[in-house]
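Bench notes, bay 3.
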Amino acid sequence: MNNIDLNCDIGESYGAWSMGQDAQVMPWITSANIACGFHAGDFSTMQQTVALAKQHAVAIGAHVSLPDLQGFGRREMKVAPNEAYALTLYQIGALHAFAHAAGTRVAHVKPHGALYNMAARDRALADAIARAVHDFDPQLILIGLANSELPRAGQALGLRVAHEAFADRRYESQGSLTPRREPGAVIEDLNSAVAQAMKIVTKGKVDIRTGGMLELRADTICVHGDRPDAASFAQRLHETLESAGISLAAPELR
C-alpha cells in the first residue's frame, strides 16, 4: 500500500467541558470525524471544529452515535433499524448545516462507539445506517470496521466505503475489536501503537490478542482524539508513515 488516510474522532468537547487536543491534532490527520451532539460535542464545538478542519484542508465527516452523552456513546442500546436510520440522518444533517455555512462539505460518515461495533456485526443495523447515508447523499463515503457488515452494507447500496483499522486497539481472532472492558484492549504505549499501525499498512496484518495474526484490509487508520497523548501520537504516526514512503490522503481524494 502506498497511501492511507489518517482519521481522528474529534470535536468532542461539550459546553464548559473541554476534551481532546483538536487544534494540535488537526495538522497531522487527513480526515476528521466530528461528534454531532449525541455522544459528545455541541453546536459551538461543531462549528469551531468544522472551521478548524477547513483551515487545515482536512476532510470533514459526521461521527454519528447512539444518544448517550453520559456513557460517551460506548454503551449498547436496543435500537430498531428505523431508529438507526433516523438518528444517522439527523446527525449528518446537523453537521451538514455547519459545513455548508462555512463553505465546505461533509465528505464521510463514521459511526461511533457502541453503534459502530453493533453495525459491524448486525447486518440489519448496518443496512439502516448505510441507507441513511445514501439517502442523504450517495456521494458520501461510509467508514466502518474493516471486513465487517457495515462496509458490506455500504457497498451493496453503491456507496464508496473505507475499511478502517485501529492503531491503538487490540483485535480478536474474528476481526472485531477487543471490548474496552477487557484488560489491554487499548494500546496505551505510543511506540506499540505506531508499530501496529505500520504492520497494518505495510503488511496488511495485525496481531491477535490471544496469539497469531489476522489479515486486515485498511483504507484508513484511526487515531483516538481522547487519548492524553493524541497530538504526539498523530504526529508520530504521520511522520513514520511518510518516512516509509506512504502518502497520506483522505478517501475522497483517492
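Next record in the batch:
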Amino acid sequence: MKTTILIGGKAGQGPNLLANLLSDTLIEDGYYVFNTRDYESVIRGGHNFNLVTFSDEPIFSNESKIDVLVCLDDNTEKLHSKDLKKNGIILKGSSENMFYAGRLFKLFCLPFQTLDNQLKKLGKKYDENIANAKKGYEDEKKSFCKLEKRKIKEIKLIGGSKGIADGAIESGIKFYYAYPMTPATPILFELAPRQLDVKDFHTIELESEIAVVMAGLGSASVGAKTMVGTSGGGFDLMTEGLSMACQAEIPLILYNASRPGPSTGVATYTGQGDLNMVLYSGHGESFRLVLVPGDPIECQEITNQAFYFSEKYKLPSIILSDKHLSESLYSMEGKPKLVKSENPTELIRYNSYEHNSTGEATENAEIIKQGFEKRIKKEKEIEKEANKFEMFKIYGKKDSKNLLVSYGSTKGAILDAIHNLDIKFIQILYLSPFPQEIEKEIKQAKKVLVVENNATSPFSDLIKQKICFSIEQKNKILKYDGRPFFSDELKQEIERRLG
C-alpha cells in the first residue's frame, strides 16, 4: 500500500503546516512517511506545495502520480490535475488549510480526536482551527480507507537539517556561525533553540559569509568546536578561509546545503552541482575531508565523523548536502552510530603563512618542504583511518552484474526505484578520501549506471580520476531542473538503460 497526497496553495495559506500535521499523525499510527516541500522564493503568493507519500513499508521518496490532490487555491488544480491517477480524488472549495485537515482525516478514516489533539499541541488559533477542521470532517463524504490499525514501531519523522544539528550537538559543538542562505538556513532554526538547553553552546548570525568563516576560524583556533553553514554562493566567499584552515591547521567544520547555480541560480530548489567546488576550492595544494550523507540518520553520523577527523588531524571537514535532503522529512528507524571526538587544541600562533612548529611565518626552504610533507602525511593517515568507518554502502541485489553508483540525496529515490530490479546500488559517503575498495565492484560489473541531480555528472569524473574507470554518457541518469528524482520515473529510466 502506497499513497501520495499533494497539498498546494499560495505561500501563506499553510500547505506545509497541513502536510506536517498529517505526516505526524501517520507516523504515530505506525506508517512510513516521506514529506517533501516545493516552494518559490516569495513570502506571499506564488505556488507552494508538499508531497506526502505514506506506506506500510519503508519509503524514502515520492512518486510522480498523485492519489489525492488538495487544492487550497484554483491554481493548484490547474497545475497538478494532469498528475492525478485515474481513480484519484480532488479536494477543493475552501482556502482554509484546517478545513482540509478535517476532510483528509475523514477520507483516511483517522479519528477526529487525534486531529483535535494535534491542533491543541499546535496551540495557535485553536478555536478557529478546530471549527474549520470540524466543518471539513463533517462535509467529507468520500472514503479512501486503506489504513489498518498497525502495531506502533520505533519510527521517527526527521529532516536532514535536524540530523546535521543533532550530530553537531552530540559531537560537542560550541559555536555555529551562519549568514542566512536557503537551503542552509534551517540549521539556524534547528540549532538556535538548543542554546537554552546545551551549556556553553552559541548560535550566531553575522553580516556576511566572509565574517562567518573568519569568526569560525577564530573560535576553532582557541579550542571551541565550531561549524559554519551556507549554500554554494556563500561557500564561494568562504574559500579563502578554507585555505587558511588547511594551512594554519584549524579544525573547522563547513556545512554546504547546495542548490542549483551558477550565481543565485534557483534559490529554493535542489541540485548537486557543488561537488567540484567542495573538493577543489581554495588555492594551493590542500587536503580536506568531504563527507556526503544520504538520509537524516547518516546526517548525524557524518557530522559526528567530520568533527572526529577535523579535531584529530587539525584540518577542515566539509559536509555536503542539498535542499532535498536538508528540508525533506523522512521516517527513520534505528539510532545513529556515533564516536567521541577529542579536542587537543594547543594555544599557539595560527598563521596563514607557511610556518614552523610554533606558528611563526617562514620562508626557509627546508621548513616549507616539511610543511607540504606534513600535510601529505596527514592525508595518507586519514585515508587509512577512514576505512574504520562506512565509506560506502551496498544495497539491492548483491550478486548482480548491473551496478548503480550515486551519493547524497538521490539515495532515497534509488532505494525505492530498485525494488525487484536486477541491480546493485553503491552509495558513496566519503568523497575525500575516496573509497578505493569500490574499484573491484565497479570494474567487475557488466554495466555501470550513475545517478546525479546535475547536468554534467562531476561524480563520474571523480570515479574516472580515482579508479580509472570511465562511465559512458548513455549510462548517466541526470536530472537538472531543480527538482529531485521521483522513484517511479527513475525506475523506468533504470530499466531503459539496462535494456
